[in-house]
Amino acid sequence: MTQYDFPIWLRATHLINFFLIGLLLRSGWQIIATHPRFYWRSDCGPGTEWIRFTKRVVPPEEGAYTAHDDELEPPSWLTLPGKLNPALGRHWHGLVTMLWVLNGLVYVSLLFVTGEWRRIVPTSWSIFPEAWESLKIYVGFGVPSIEHFTPYDALQKLTYFSIVFIVAPLMMVTGPVMSPAVSSRFPWLPKLFGGRQAARSIHFLGMVAMSVFILGHVALVFITHREYNVTHMVFGEYDPARVAQATTIIISTIALAIIVWIAISYVSIRNRRASQKFLFRAMEPFRKLTINKFKPRNRTAQPYTEKDISPYHWTNGRYPKPDESPEWHELAAHDFRDYVLEIGPANDPAKIVRVPFEQIKSLPQQEQIVAHACMQGWTGIAKWKGPKVMDVMALAGPPPADAKYLLVTSFGLAQSMSDGRPLEPFYSCIPIEDCHEDESIFAWSMNDKPLPWTFGAPLRIRVESYVGYKMVKYIRSLEWIADYSTIQDGMGGTREDSGYQVINARI
Ligand SMILES: Nc1nc2c(c(=O)[nH]1)N[C@H]1C(S)=C(S)[C@@H](COP(=O)(O)O)O[C@H]1N2
Ligand SMILES: [Mo]
C-alpha cells in the first residue's frame, strides 16, 4: 500500500479531469441532439442507423424533411448550452477538448516522470488472469481484499490503462476525423475508421465507455475500502480519523461541479452572441496551430467514386417559398433558362456584371465526388459539377485590391433572425483564399443532372474543406468585400448571425 502515494498533481489532474469531462459529456450530448442518429455508412440514409435517439421517421423523399426539422431540443440542465444551440455546443466541446487534452498530457507526463506509471500500466501478462479473478469477486458482489490494491487491483489497473491509453486517444483522433478540414487534408484518416460516420459512431461508443467507467470508478471508490480511498483522494494519505471530513469534501465538490456545469449552460444561453465571440476567440490560437496551417488542398484528396454516391442525401434549408422569392419561382417555371448571375457591388448597380446561365455552363467545368459534412453531424456523398469559383469571378475582372471575402447571397431567406426582425436573404462570406482552393466551384449539376430545387437550383457554391453552412444554395448574387461587419448581424453569414456558428467553418 505504501509503495504508491497519491501526490497532489495526481489528485489535482483528477479533479480538473472530472470537471472537464462533465462539460465534454454535456456539450457532446448537445451535439448528438442535433442529429440524434448514428450510422456506419457515410450516406446516412433513413433506416440505416444502428442506433437513434428519436422516434421521428425520415420520409424517403429527399428534401421533404430537413436535418433542421430533425433536431431535438434538449433542456439546459442536461446539455451545454441546451435548446436549439448546436453551434454553441460544438464550440464548447472544442474549447473544453483542448483543456482536457492539456490536462491529460500533464497527467500522463507526470505519470512517467515520477515513475508512477506502474500504477496503471500493466507490466506482466499475469494481469489478465488476476483481473479475471477480481471480476469474479465483483460479479458476486464481493470486494477483493485490501492487499490486492497496490494501489489498484488487477481489474482496476487494466480498466484504467484502457481508459487512459486506449479510449482517450481514440476519442482524440475520432473527434477531428469528423472535421472536413482534417479529413480533406488527411483523407486516410477517415478511411482508417471506415468513414466519417463510423468515426462518429466510434466517438459515441467511446463516450459510453467513458461514462460507464466514470460511474463505476466513482461508485467503487465508495464501495470498496471507502476509508482508504476517500482519505487518499482528499488528503493524499490514509487517515482513519478524517474519513467523514474527506467524504463531505468529496460530496460537496461533486455537488459544486454539478451546479457549475448547469450554471455555464444558463449563462451561455442567455448571452449567446457573447458566448459565440468568446468561444471563437478562445479557440483561435488552437486553430492557428492546427487547421489554419493546412495548405489549400489537393483536388484528388477525397477518395470517393461513383459507387460511393449516396442514394439519399440529407438537406438543410428549403427552396424559397413563392412569397419569399417570386423571382426565383418565375425562373424555376422556365427551368432557369433566364437565370442571370449578378457579380459586383450591391451599392453601385452600374458596376454589376450580369452573367447568363449559359455562360456559366460554357466555362471549363470541374466534376467532384465529395462528402458534404453538415455541422449537425450528417454526411452525404454526391457528384457536383460546375466552373471554378475564381473562373466565374474573373468574368467580372480581377478582385479589388482590398477584397478579403466573397459575399454569396441567396434568393432564399434565412430561417430566422437573431432579433426577430423580418427575414433577410440567406448569405455567407467565404475568405478569398478558400475561393482559390481547387475544389471551390459553383455547381449547377448534381449527380449528372441539373441541381434539383432542394439542392440549390440553379446554382450553389461548394467549398469542400468547410462544413455545409457556408455552401449557399439558390445563389442570386456575388460580391467581393473587404469586411463583413456591416452586413446583417455582422458575423459573416446567416448561420453565424442567427445560429452562432463561426466564420471559420472548417470544423
Ligand atoms: N440558401 C440556403 N443555402 C443553404 C442553407 C439554407 O438554409 N439556405 N443551408 C446550408 C446548410 S446548413 C447546409 S448543411 C447545406 C445543405 O445542403 P443540401 O441541402 O444540398 O444537403 O446547405 C447550406 N446552404
Ligand atoms: Mo448544415
From TrEMBL:
Cite the entry's keywords alphabetically: Cell membrane, Membrane, Transmembrane, Transmembrane helix
As for membrane topology, the entry says: Multi-pass membrane protein
Q: Where in the cell is it found?
A: Cell membrane
Domain (Cytochrome b561 bacterial/Ni-hydrogenase): residue spans on this chain: 6-235
The UniProt transmembrane annotation reads 6-25, 92-113, 158-182, 202-223, 243-269
Domain Oxidoreductase molybdopterin-binding positions: 336-482
Q: Name one GO molecular function term.
A: heme binding
List cellular component terms (GO): plasma membrane
Which residue positions does the secretion signal occupy? none
Please list the coiled coil stretches: none
Under the heading InterPro entries, the entry gives: Cyt_b561_bac/Ni-Hgenase, Di-haem_cyt_TM, Hydrogenase_cytochrome, OxRdtase_Mopterin-bd_dom, OxRdtase_Mopterin-bd_sf
Instruction: Kindly state a single biological-process term from the GO annotations of this entry.
Output: respiratory electron transport chain
Q: What is this protein called?
A: Oxidoreductase
Per the UniProt record, the source organism is Intrasporangium chromatireducens Q5-1
